[in-house]
Amino acid sequence: MKRLLAVSLMALVSLVLTPSALSTAPTITRTRIDDTFVDDVDCAFPVQFHIVGTDLGILFDSRQFDAFPNSRATLTNLDSRRTLTVSIAGPGHIQFGSDGGVTLVSTGPALLFSLFRGTPGITLLNGRFVWSFDAQGNETSFSSVGTTRDLCAELAG
Question: How far is CA 119 from each of CA 66, 112, 133, 144, 157, rounded to the nearest angstrom?
Fold first, then answer.
């Protein structure tokens, strides 16, 4: 009985101390993805992307959470026609700072193309990474635990 009373009191105190968490409901969106485009900058050859799946987005105050259940990207080297398909299920979230900075956190798998940390290419990150930028878009920190795959190298081989 004492344990039940203690748990009930803790729950009540947490509700009283966090009224802002209960005052704004999150915005939840589900967006179907089926997009094809060509990138001819990041590898030494043009790459076609075909991305399919669903973006489950949850926006709450200054945070956005996205997961991409069953989402995948099919990449095709348009010179050799070599193709590979990878999961890009995520999830990840974005924290918008009051100073205009942004922090991205993902537990992968996540597909990054264009410049990833100053190196052109197409990278698949699998694991946790935290990447922060100031209001001008300059990288302020990066940390990761997990693996990266160089998809340009895989498509070239």
Answer: 25, 11, 17, 16, 19
